[in-house]
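Re: the 235-residue chain
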Amino acid sequence: MQISWIKKSTLLDFPGKVATIIFTPGCNFRCRFCHNSEFVLPEKMKENKVFEDLISEKAFFNFLESRIGLLDGVVICWWEPTLQKDLYDFAKKIKQMWFLVKLDTNWRDPEIVQKLINDKIIDFVAMDMKMPFSRFTELIWIEEKVDNYKKTAEILLNSNIDYEFRTTVIKNYHDKETIEEIAKDIEGAKNYHLQNFIWWNTLEPDFDWATFSKPELKEFMEVAKPYVQKCTIRT
Protein backbone atom coordinates (compact mmCIF):
# COMPACT_ATOMS: atom_id res chain seq x y z
CA MET A 1 0.00 0.00 0.00
CA GLN A 2 1.38 3.40 -0.97
CA ILE A 3 1.01 5.81 1.94
CA SER A 4 2.07 9.38 1.30
CA TRP A 5 1.04 10.93 4.61
CA ILE A 6 -0.59 10.11 7.95
CA LYS A 7 -2.66 12.40 10.15
CA LYS A 8 -2.37 10.77 13.52
CA SER A 9 -5.65 11.89 15.02
CA THR A 10 -8.90 13.49 13.87
CA LEU A 11 -12.32 14.07 15.40
CA LEU A 12 -13.83 15.37 12.15
CA ASP A 13 -13.27 12.84 9.40
CA PHE A 14 -14.99 9.75 10.82
CA PRO A 15 -18.38 10.84 12.23
CA GLY A 16 -18.59 10.22 15.95
CA LYS A 17 -15.19 8.52 16.10
CA VAL A 18 -11.60 9.28 16.97
CA ALA A 19 -9.56 8.19 13.96
CA THR A 20 -6.28 8.38 12.14
CA ILE A 21 -6.14 9.21 8.43
CA ILE A 22 -3.88 7.76 5.80
CA PHE A 23 -3.48 9.49 2.44
CA THR A 24 -2.68 7.59 -0.74
CA PRO A 25 -0.97 9.26 -3.74
CA GLY A 26 -2.40 9.48 -7.25
CA CYS A 27 -5.87 10.12 -8.67
CA ASN A 28 -7.76 9.26 -11.84
CA PHE A 29 -9.51 12.65 -11.82
CA ARG A 30 -8.00 16.03 -12.63
CA CYS A 31 -10.47 18.21 -10.78
CA ARG A 32 -9.85 21.80 -11.68
CA PHE A 33 -10.39 22.96 -8.09
CA CYS A 34 -8.24 20.24 -6.47
CA HIS A 35 -6.07 21.60 -3.63
CA ASN A 36 -3.43 18.91 -3.88
CA SER A 37 -2.02 18.77 -7.39
CA GLU A 38 1.37 17.74 -5.95
CA PHE A 39 -0.19 14.37 -5.06
CA VAL A 40 -2.31 14.07 -8.22
CA LEU A 41 -0.23 15.12 -11.23
CA PRO A 42 2.51 12.57 -12.08
CA GLU A 43 5.01 15.27 -13.00
CA LYS A 44 4.52 17.06 -9.68
CA MET A 45 4.70 13.81 -7.73
CA LYS A 46 8.00 13.08 -9.43
CA GLU A 47 9.26 16.61 -8.80
CA ASN A 48 8.30 16.38 -5.12
CA LYS A 49 9.76 12.86 -4.82
CA VAL A 50 6.45 11.55 -3.47
CA PHE A 51 7.25 7.94 -4.30
CA GLU A 52 10.67 8.21 -2.70
CA ASP A 53 9.22 9.35 0.62
CA LEU A 54 6.37 6.88 1.09
CA ILE A 55 5.58 5.60 4.58
CA SER A 56 6.01 1.85 4.87
CA GLU A 57 3.14 -0.44 5.84
CA LYS A 58 5.29 -1.79 8.66
CA ALA A 59 5.73 1.70 10.12
CA PHE A 60 2.02 2.39 9.82
CA PHE A 61 0.93 -0.84 11.51
CA ASN A 62 3.51 -0.31 14.28
CA PHE A 63 1.95 3.11 14.84
CA LEU A 64 -1.57 1.66 14.74
CA GLU A 65 -0.67 -1.01 17.29
CA SER A 66 0.54 1.72 19.63
CA ARG A 67 -2.89 3.40 19.35
CA ILE A 68 -5.00 0.40 20.34
CA GLY A 69 -7.49 1.64 22.93
CA LEU A 70 -6.93 5.26 21.92
CA LEU A 71 -8.36 5.28 18.38
CA ASP A 72 -11.70 3.98 17.12
CA GLY A 73 -10.86 3.74 13.44
CA VAL A 74 -8.85 4.50 10.33
CA VAL A 75 -9.84 6.67 7.39
CA ILE A 76 -8.34 5.65 4.03
CA CYS A 77 -8.60 8.59 1.70
CA TRP A 78 -7.11 11.00 -0.85
CA TRP A 79 -6.38 11.11 -3.49
CA GLU A 80 -8.09 7.99 -4.78
CA PRO A 81 -7.52 4.89 -2.64
CA THR A 82 -9.17 2.47 -5.07
CA LEU A 83 -6.20 2.96 -7.42
CA GLN A 84 -4.18 0.97 -4.89
CA LYS A 85 -4.14 -2.69 -5.97
CA ASP A 86 -3.75 -3.96 -2.41
CA LEU A 87 -6.47 -1.79 -0.86
CA TYR A 88 -8.57 -4.82 0.09
CA ASP A 89 -5.74 -6.65 1.89
CA PHE A 90 -4.59 -3.46 3.60
CA ALA A 91 -8.08 -2.62 4.88
CA LYS A 92 -8.52 -6.24 6.01
CA LYS A 93 -5.36 -6.02 8.15
CA ILE A 94 -6.74 -2.91 9.82
CA LYS A 95 -10.07 -4.62 10.47
CA GLN A 96 -8.32 -7.65 11.95
CA MET A 97 -6.85 -5.29 14.55
CA TRP A 98 -10.45 -4.44 15.53
CA PHE A 99 -10.40 -0.90 14.20
CA LEU A 100 -13.32 0.54 12.26
CA VAL A 101 -12.52 1.39 8.64
CA LYS A 102 -13.81 4.35 6.62
CA LEU A 103 -13.15 4.72 2.89
CA ASP A 104 -13.25 8.07 1.07
CA THR A 105 -13.55 7.53 -2.68
CA ASN A 106 -14.62 9.14 -5.94
CA TRP A 107 -16.63 6.02 -6.94
CA ARG A 108 -14.40 4.73 -9.74
CA ASP A 109 -14.34 1.07 -8.66
CA PRO A 110 -17.71 -0.41 -7.65
CA GLU A 111 -16.29 -3.95 -7.51
CA ILE A 112 -13.82 -3.26 -4.70
CA VAL A 113 -16.41 -1.21 -2.79
CA GLN A 114 -18.91 -4.06 -3.06
CA LYS A 115 -16.34 -6.64 -1.97
CA LEU A 116 -15.27 -4.57 1.05
CA ILE A 117 -18.92 -4.21 2.07
CA ASN A 118 -19.80 -7.87 1.48
CA ASP A 119 -16.84 -9.05 3.58
CA LYS A 120 -17.67 -6.58 6.37
CA ILE A 121 -14.29 -4.88 6.14
CA ILE A 122 -15.44 -1.28 5.79
CA ASP A 123 -17.87 0.44 8.15
CA PHE A 124 -18.35 3.81 6.49
CA VAL A 125 -17.98 5.19 2.95
CA ALA A 126 -17.81 8.85 1.93
CA MET A 127 -18.27 9.71 -1.73
CA ASP A 128 -17.90 12.98 -3.58
CA MET A 129 -20.76 14.00 -5.84
CA LYS A 130 -19.09 16.78 -7.78
CA MET A 131 -21.84 17.26 -10.37
CA PRO A 132 -25.02 15.47 -11.51
CA PHE A 133 -24.40 12.30 -13.49
CA SER A 134 -25.64 14.06 -16.62
CA ARG A 135 -22.81 16.64 -16.29
CA PHE A 136 -20.31 14.28 -14.72
CA THR A 137 -17.12 15.41 -16.48
CA GLU A 138 -17.49 19.20 -16.16
CA LEU A 139 -15.18 19.58 -13.16
CA ILE A 140 -13.04 16.46 -13.27
CA TRP A 141 -11.28 17.58 -16.48
CA ILE A 142 -11.12 14.12 -18.05
CA GLU A 143 -13.38 12.07 -20.28
CA GLU A 144 -14.61 9.05 -18.38
CA LYS A 145 -17.74 6.92 -18.58
CA VAL A 146 -20.21 7.50 -15.80
CA ASP A 147 -21.44 3.88 -15.53
CA ASN A 148 -19.09 2.80 -12.72
CA TYR A 149 -19.96 5.86 -10.69
CA LYS A 150 -23.69 5.22 -10.99
CA LYS A 151 -23.13 1.60 -9.99
CA THR A 152 -21.17 2.56 -6.87
CA ALA A 153 -23.95 4.96 -5.86
CA GLU A 154 -26.48 2.14 -6.23
CA ILE A 155 -24.33 -0.15 -4.10
CA LEU A 156 -24.28 2.37 -1.26
CA LEU A 157 -27.94 3.29 -1.54
CA ASN A 158 -28.83 -0.39 -1.23
CA SER A 159 -26.34 -1.22 1.51
CA ASN A 160 -26.74 -1.40 5.28
CA ILE A 161 -23.48 0.36 6.14
CA ASP A 162 -23.09 4.02 7.06
CA TYR A 163 -22.27 6.35 4.19
CA GLU A 164 -22.44 9.93 3.04
CA PHE A 165 -22.46 11.78 -0.24
CA ARG A 166 -20.97 15.27 -0.38
CA THR A 167 -20.71 18.14 -2.81
CA THR A 168 -18.22 20.99 -2.72
CA VAL A 169 -20.28 23.87 -4.10
CA ILE A 170 -18.66 26.51 -6.29
CA LYS A 171 -20.22 29.59 -7.85
CA ASN A 172 -20.37 29.54 -11.65
CA TYR A 173 -20.70 25.73 -11.48
CA HIS A 174 -23.46 25.01 -8.98
CA ASP A 175 -26.91 26.51 -8.57
CA LYS A 176 -30.22 25.36 -7.10
CA GLU A 177 -31.12 23.37 -10.22
CA THR A 178 -27.75 21.58 -10.14
CA ILE A 179 -28.09 20.68 -6.46
CA GLU A 180 -31.63 19.40 -7.02
CA GLU A 181 -30.43 17.22 -9.89
CA ILE A 182 -27.63 15.79 -7.73
CA ALA A 183 -30.10 15.07 -4.93
CA LYS A 184 -32.36 13.27 -7.40
CA ASP A 185 -29.40 11.16 -8.56
CA ILE A 186 -28.89 9.92 -4.99
CA GLU A 187 -32.56 9.93 -3.98
CA GLY A 188 -33.13 8.22 -0.65
CA ALA A 189 -29.54 8.73 0.54
CA LYS A 190 -29.00 8.61 4.30
CA ASN A 191 -26.69 11.63 4.39
CA TYR A 192 -25.90 14.38 1.90
CA HIS A 193 -23.49 17.16 2.86
CA LEU A 194 -22.87 20.49 1.17
CA GLN A 195 -19.58 22.28 1.76
CA ASN A 196 -18.39 25.64 0.47
CA PHE A 197 -15.35 25.77 -1.79
CA ILE A 198 -12.31 27.45 -0.25
CA TRP A 199 -9.59 28.51 -2.63
CA TRP A 200 -6.08 27.21 -2.06
CA ASN A 201 -3.40 26.06 -4.48
CA THR A 202 -5.83 24.82 -7.13
CA LEU A 203 -4.78 22.40 -9.86
CA GLU A 204 -5.93 24.94 -12.44
CA PRO A 205 -4.08 28.09 -11.26
CA ASP A 206 -6.64 30.46 -12.78
CA PHE A 207 -9.68 28.50 -11.66
CA ASP A 208 -12.75 30.75 -11.84
CA TRP A 209 -14.38 30.51 -8.44
CA ALA A 210 -16.42 32.21 -5.76
CA THR A 211 -18.04 31.03 -2.54
CA PHE A 212 -21.69 31.07 -1.56
CA SER A 213 -23.19 32.98 1.36
CA LYS A 214 -24.80 31.14 4.27
CA PRO A 215 -28.33 32.03 3.05
CA GLU A 216 -27.47 30.66 -0.40
CA LEU A 217 -26.18 27.42 1.11
CA LYS A 218 -29.38 27.10 3.14
CA GLU A 219 -31.39 27.49 -0.07
CA PHE A 220 -29.38 24.62 -1.58
CA MET A 221 -30.05 22.52 1.50
CA GLU A 222 -33.81 23.14 1.28
CA VAL A 223 -33.78 22.18 -2.40
CA ALA A 224 -32.05 18.86 -1.63
CA LYS A 225 -34.04 17.91 1.48
CA PRO A 226 -37.10 16.44 -0.28
CA TYR A 227 -34.94 13.81 -2.00
CA VAL A 228 -32.61 12.63 0.79
CA GLN A 229 -33.08 11.51 4.38
CA LYS A 230 -30.73 14.15 5.76
CA CYS A 231 -29.00 17.16 4.19
CA THR A 232 -26.58 19.35 6.12
CA ILE A 233 -24.13 22.17 5.52
CA ARG A 234 -20.61 21.26 6.57
CA THR A 235 -18.30 24.08 7.61
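The two ends are 31 Å apart (CA to CA).
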